[in-house]
Amino acid sequence: METRLVVTLGDPCGIGPELLLKALPELAAASRITVCGSRAGVDLLAGGPIPFAWREGPEGPELEVAGARARWIDPDPALGRDRLSLGQGSAASGRAAVEGVRAGAREVLEGRGDALVTLPLAKAAAHAAGYAIPGHTEFLQELAGAPRVQMAFVAPRFSVVLHTVHQSLRSVIEGLDRHAVAETLSFSADRFAQLTGAPGPRVALCALNPHAGEGGAFGHEDERLVEAVADAQAWAGSGRWASFPSPFPPGPAPEGWRLFPERPAPMPGDRPTFSGPHPSDTLFLRAWRGEFDLVVALYHDQGLIPIKVLEPETAVNLTLGLPFVRTSPDHGTAFGIAGRWQADPANFIQAATLGARLGLRAARR
Fold first, then answer.
1. How far apart are CA 341 and CA 339, in angstroms?
2. pLDDT for the residue 97
3. What is the rounded radius of gyration, in angstroms, for the C-alpha atoms of the chain?
4. Which residues lie across from 35 on neighbouring strands?
């Protein structure tokens, strides 16, 4: 069975079009590809080292690279390359990126795709175009009508979920709430159990303060986190999230299923176990060495710095809580190198490959 993979181009002035041209032959060998985004973004790369052509296919325009083809949906076909500039986000490129995401989400929500893979957009360009969205995750939640989502980054050696995402560090501290953290722990463990097929992931929570507060010497916020861990453990096995959307069929994962086939099977257990808060300066290495299956970080950089250092090519952004599979490479638009043909497609290929595997499982529901 062939996966129908929907790719959104992201900002047409960033590295998304280049990554697509480099990766398309490999992706199209395993999946049917639909791309949603501005054709003008690809046309900006005409005359470069990777030749491409536009063809007319049975369902409309197609992009061809080295014999591989992708169906193309352009939400704004009137946008020409004369209104775009490589390496410079603008209102025009922001609108193209956001509308590409809207078109891609529509494809999977209406059953014409099995998984969505999003190339990076620039938030500043999206805002310049009048879209008040913090990022892909929140926009996709709105489009799908999902009651709850969490941003996760999964990799073969360890995985991270963010409790908060695009907000100031001051607001994270001021808004730290026992119940909210407990819900993030519980929901993340539930979705991660679905992903891995192992019902008992070992989930570790990051501390907020150095040394987890050192018994109050460096702050008392971590005392609330101790209570949140206890709450999450009390909810384990309660079916608290059973009614929330999932792209996967109910019941256990397919026999022998692993999120990453090359990774050893998770530790056995019939329900999640929660621990922490752990000092963050040692927790991620412990997880990378296999002590924990999932780390919950309290804020954006607390989780992303270590996973980008330890798993720079293999970490994939995965949204938990959507009714469809959504993955993304773990990097941005890289305007500074757009058009220079220096962008490495390895992380995009990793994201698309994982999306295709998960999409194939979702299509069997």
1. 6
2. 97
3. 21
4. 7, 72
Using the predicted structure, report yes or no on whether residue 47 has a pLDDT greater than 90: yes
Taking the mean position of all CA atoms in its chain, how far away is CA 75?
A: 22
The per-residue pLDDT of the chain, averaged, comes to 93
- pLDDT, position 212: 72
3-state secondary structure of 95: helix
Please state, in angstroms and rounded to a whole number, the distance separating the CA atoms of residues 243 and 253. Answer: 17
> Of 161, 179, 163, 188, whose CA–CA distance to 287 is shortest?
161
Whether the pLDDT of residue 249 is over 90: the answer is: no
Strand locations in the chain, DSSP E?
A: 3-8, 31-36, 53-57, 60-65, 68-73, 115-118, 150-154, 159-162, 202-206, 273-278, 294-297, 316-320, 325-329
Q: Looking at beta carbons, which pairs linking 337-341 to residues 24 or more positions away fall under 8 Å? A: 337/15, 337/87, 338/13, 338/14, 338/15, 338/18, 338/86, 338/87, 339/18, 339/44, 339/45, 339/48, 339/86, 339/87, 341/18, 341/48, 341/49
Residues of the chain with CATH 3.40.718.10: 1-146+322-365, 148-316
What pLDDT does residue 98 have? Answer: 97
Residues 6+ apart with CB under 8 A from 315: 153, 154, 155, 307, 308, 330, 347
Which tokens is 212 given? 């987890």
In CATH, what is the architecture of 1-146+322-365?
Answer: 3-Layer(aba) Sandwich (3.40)
CA 198, distance to chain mean position in Å, is: 21
Cα dihedral across residues 155, 304, 136, 164: positive or negative: positive
CATH class for the region spanning 148-316: alpha beta
Q: What is the pTM of this model?
A: 0.94
**H or E element, residue 244:** none
Token code pair at residue 122: 């620039």
Q: CA-CA distance, 103 to 168, in Å (whole number)?
A: 30
Which amino acid, 349? I
Alpha carbon 163 to chain centroid, angstroms: 14
| Residue 197, both tokens | 């097929």
Do the Cβ atoms of 68 and 30 come closer than 8 Å? no
Q: Longest C-alpha distance within the chain, in Å?
A: 68
